[in-house]
Amino acid sequence: MIKRAYNLEDLVQPNKVLVIYGPRRVGKTTLLNNYLSGIKAKYKLDSGDNIRVQQALSSQDFNKITEYASGYDLIAIDEAQQVPNIGMGLKIIVDQISGITIIATGSSSFDLAGAVGEPLTGRKTTITLYPIAQMELIYKYNRHELKEKLEEFLVFGSYPEAITAKSRKDKIAILEELVSSYLLKDVLALDRVKSSKVLLDLLKLIAFQTGSEVSLNELATQLKLDVKTIGRYLDIFEKAFIIKRIGGFSRNLRKEIVSKAKYYFLDNGVRNAVISQFNPLDSRNDIGILWENFMVTERIKKCAYRNIYGSFYFWRTYDRQEVDLVEEREGKLYGYEFRWSAKDKMKTPKDWQKTYANAELKLINRENYLDFIL
């Protein structure tokens, strides 16, 4: 069992809903079951896939909903995004039954966020569970062992099943099934998304451009779709926890690029599964992409789990000066350059130094990366 970053005991509160977002198969149900197995409170665990649960909680009938929840200290709803109007149903429970606690998990934030956001204003705490973070694995492996396993993380990612699978063949099968049956299933559940082929083609283009500025116009031309559709699909991918969009940073220096964005996959294994590329590092030409993607997503996990609040950007000028990742926290700027080779040296871009003289800039490589993400 891998110890997760969240301790639900510290997060549940009476007459509030704890909402656990995250991609499918990252361990939300395991985290919930582990918590429930150790409490003395009387609880009910149900799934949003259950028709009877859907009928009760989506009814907006006060009597029916309070009857469903009465007599319990805690109600837990797994896959809550499957219940229509789930937010209103949970609001009725927390408003009508004194002292009750609710936990709801959901794999599609575009469903669950829309359904619970407004009704539960002031009545919920929200957390996001990601694929296993290096800062969670440090409880299982020491630093030397994490570095020894680095190639595995870069190629096969950090989904629990991919980490615990015994063979390379099993890891590949798990990741291909994850992409085809789970992640795309969430996206295809939307009414206006009809073709899985178009979605997969778009994801492949993003996979090959990971860490580079992406032009929606170029994507639209390649896929023969309009720009608005491309933008909508990318937004859906982000809300489905497949990719992360990072925009350009600017303080109005005229030659700074802000019109484009970079996209990173929330898991290296998913990125490689999309392009069916699981070769070892010594026979790949995209190791720089894998390294940058891994660093950015591990940093995102660390900031989420350690409550480090800020915004993520990249910085680039039209004459190709660049900083891979920029964090803006409490009014200060922190820049990071990612290099796979420990021999590479960093040259501070002159416009960055001139325009953001008080900003920090660090080189992250294989020698010092654990300090950056643990």
Entry keywords:
alpha/beta; 374 residues; Arc Repressor Mutant, subunit A; 2 domains; five-stranded parallel beta sheet; Rossmann fold; seven-stranded mixed beta sheet; 42% helix
Briefly summarize what is shown.
The longest helix has 21 residues, at 168-188. The two termini are 19 Å apart. The chain is built from 17 helices and 12 strands.
Poorly predicted runs: none
Number of domains: 2
Structural class comes to alpha/beta
Number of strands: 12
Taken as a percent bin, the fraction of beta residues is 15-25%
- Sketch the major β-sheet: 7 strands, mixed
Write the layout of secondary structure elements.
Layout: E1 17-21, H1 28-37, E2 43-47, H2 51-57, H3 62-69, E3 74-78, H4 86-96, E4 101-106, H5 109-116, E5 124-128, H6 134-137, H7 143-148, H8 150-156, H9 160-164, H10 168-188, H11 196-208, E6 213-214, H12 216-223, H13 227-239, E7 243-248, E8 261-265, H14 268-274, H15 287-305, E9 311-316, E10 322-329, E11 332-338, H16 350-355, E12 360-364, H17 369-373
Parallel strand pairs: 1-4, 1-5, 2-3, 3-4, 7-9, 11-12
Antiparallel strand pairs: 6-8, 7-8, 9-10, 10-11
Walk me through the structure.
- By secondary structure, this protein is an alpha/beta fold.
- The protein folds into 2 domains: 8-128, P-loop containing nucleotide triphosphate hydrolases (Rossmann fold); 134-373, Arc Repressor Mutant, subunit A, CATH 1.10.10.
- The chain is 42% helix and 17% strand.
- It is built from 17 helices and 12 strands.
- The protein has helices at residues 28-37, 51-57, 62-69, 86-96, 109-116, 134-137, 143-148, 150-156, 160-164, 168-188, 196-208, 216-223, 227-239, 268-274, 287-305, 350-355, 369-373; strands spanning 17-21, 43-47, 74-78, 101-106, 124-128, 213-214, 243-248, 261-265, 311-316, 322-329, 332-338, 360-364.
- The strands form 2 sheets. The protein has a 7-stranded mixed sheet, sandwiched between helices.
- Strand 9 (311-316) and strand 10 (322-329) form a beta hairpin.
- Helix 3 crosses helix 4 (86-96) and helix 8 (150-156) packs across helix 14 (268-274).
- The relative contact order is 0.11.
